[in-house]
Every structure is written in structure tokens, then in C-alpha cells.
Automatic annotation (TrEMBL):
Source organism of this protein record: Zemynaea arenosa
SMART domains recorded: AAA (SM00382)
Keywords: ATP-binding, Cell membrane, Membrane, Nucleotide-binding, Transport
One Gene Ontology term of the molecular function aspect: ATP hydrolysis activity
Protein's UniProt name: ABC transporter ATP-binding protein
């Protein structure tokens, strides 16, 4: 379970994330949606202990993401928005390294890496240097790294962004399977068709504030709106009537 308790981040006088209170129950796939600059990555970086909140806190399975950062990382798999790998390591070596960082023995790390390479369809490129991977392969390698320790919770920043349609569908199917296997998944995206297809509930963040939360039907009912998630998203994030920047 993920609990946001008035989590906020301020840069000078600019509120990148306004106090965010939200609960994502165990086993849910929650879509965190918002336009560019809305505050998605800032929120996720606070969940991962990379950024210190200005106020409030976020708990994962009861553990504070700042105070208990090491314990949180044991139960969380994280895909950054732009995964970066050591250029001089091969795909297989990167996975083994990550597994060993999680405390697995060399033999276990080798076995887990082999399983993940097979699961993500990276067998054929396992001996290639990661720097030569395509964007799709890098995302899959990043997801394999995120899942190598079989975490209960996945926090994924734009997992589909930049992928071609085949790679995108492939990743989505694997994430749906992970959710069906009981993982809690918090996924940020601005790709609304993906969110509509995969997520149990979504939250729409706009200018650092949560503008709506719920299933698509619930959000439609709140807004007395009809139409697709895209219609609802555009309605909630429409700035044309506002005079402030
Ligand atoms: N270090 C910083 N100092 C000042 N402002 C920042 C800093 N980091 C982020 N911001 C601002 O905070 C806001 C939220 O940024 P964030 O990266 O969280 O947005 P996002 O929703 O992830 O956007 P995108 O979809 O474009 O990645 C943006 O206006 C951004 O310019």
C-alpha cells in the first residue's frame, strides 16, 4: 500500500507538488497522469528518496520513504524516466550487478538475470553493451532491473514513452501480467490510452495539484462529463480561461 500524506515539494516560491494526499491499495495499478511539468517526476523522486519533501510524507507498506529509504528500496522496483546504464557493461552484467546490490549471491544473481533476460525477451542481446541498446531494449532492461528482486511494489516513470507500437504493447502486456500477479503498480504517464487500458484507477495532476482521482467512470461522474479519458484529461488540464501562469 502507498500512502501520501500531504506530500509537497516547493522550489523557492514555486509549488512543484502541492500537498498530495492519496492512498493506493495493495494490488492496484494506479495511473499518475498529468501534462508536462505537472509534478509527476518530482512526486516519484520523493517516493524513491531522491528528493526531500518540503513537507508531508509518503509511506510504502507503512515505511517512510525518507526515514526508511533502504527498507523501502528492498520492496520497491523503480524505473526512472530516463534509465541510464554503465556503458561498459553488457545487459546481462548490469542485471547481475543490480541483483548483487540487492544482496543475492553471485549464483542467485546469475540465475535471476537469466530469468529476467528471458522474461523480457532480451536473450539475444544479453551480451551486447547496453549503450548500443535501442530505446525499447533500454526500457525493458530498466524494467528487468526494477523487477529482479521480485518487489511487491513497482514505481514506473513513463515506462512506455518513446516505444514503438510493438514494444509498447509488449511492455503493457507484461505490466498487466505483473499486476495480475498481485503487484502494486504506481505508473506515471501522459499516454492516456495506456492508462485507460491498464489502470484500475487514475489520478490527474495539474500544476502540482491533484485535480481528480478515481476510476474513469468515477471521474466522469464527478465532472458530470462523458467521453474518453482524453476528453476528461483535456477538460481538467485546460488553462485557456486562466490568467495566472
Ligand atoms: N530543481 C528544480 N528547481 C526548480 N523547479 C523545478 C526543479 N525540478 C523541477 N522543477 C519544476 O517543477 C515542475 C514539475 O516538474 P516535473 O519534472 O515533476 O514534471 P512532470 O510532470 O514529470 O513533467 P514531464 O511530463 O514533462 O516529465 C516543473 O515546472 C519543473 O520545471
Amino acid at each position: 500500500m502507498i500512502q501520501f500524506e500531504a506530500l509537497a515539494k516547493r522550489y523557492g516560491s514555486y509549488d512543484a507538488v502541492k500537498p498530495l494526499t492519496l492512498t493506493v491499495p495493495r494490488g492496484e495499478m494506479f495511473g499518475f497522469l498529468g501534462p508536462n511539468g505537472a509534478g509527476k517526476t518530482t512526486t516519484i523522486r520523493m517516493m524513491m528518496g531522491i528528493l526531500v519533501p518540503s513537507s508531508g510524507r509518503v509511506l510504502i507498506d507503512g515505511l517512510d520513504c525518507q526515514q526508511d529509504a533502504a527498507a523501502v528500496k528492498q520492496r520497491v522496483g523503480y524505473l526512472p524516466d530516463n534509465p541510464v546504464f554503465y556503458d561498459f557493461l553488457r545487459g546481462r552484467e548490469i542485471l547481475q550487478f543490480v541483483a548483487e546490490m540487492h544482496g543475492f549471491s553471485r549464483r542467485e544473481a546469475r540465475e535471476r538475470s537469466a530469468q529476467m533476460l528471458a522474461h523480457w525477451g532480451l536473450d539475444d542481446v544479453s551480451e551486447e553493451f547496453a549503450v548500443n541498446y535501442s530505446m525499447g531494449m533500454k526500457k525493458k532492461l530498466g524494467l528487468a532491473c526494477a523487477m529482479i528482486h521480485d518487489p511487491a511494489v513497482l514505481i514506473l516513470d513513463e515506462p512506455i514513452n518513446g516505444l514503438d507500437p510493438r514494444a509498447s504493447r509488449d511492455v503493457q502486456e507484461r505490466l498487466i501480467a505483473a499486476a495480475a500477479g498481485g503487484k502494486t503498480i504506481f505508473v506515471s504517464t501522459h499516454l492516456l490510452d495506456m492508462a485507460e487500458k491498464m489502470c484500475d484507477r487514475v489520478g490527474i495532476i495539474h500544476r502540482g495539484a491533484l485535480a481528480a482521482t478515481g476510476t474513469l467512470d468515477e471521474i466522469r461522474a464527478q465532472l458530470a462529463a462523458s467521453g474518453s479519458l482524453e476528453d476528461v484529461f483535456l477538460m481538467l488540464t485546460d488553462d485557456t480561461d486562466e490568467t495566472t501562469p
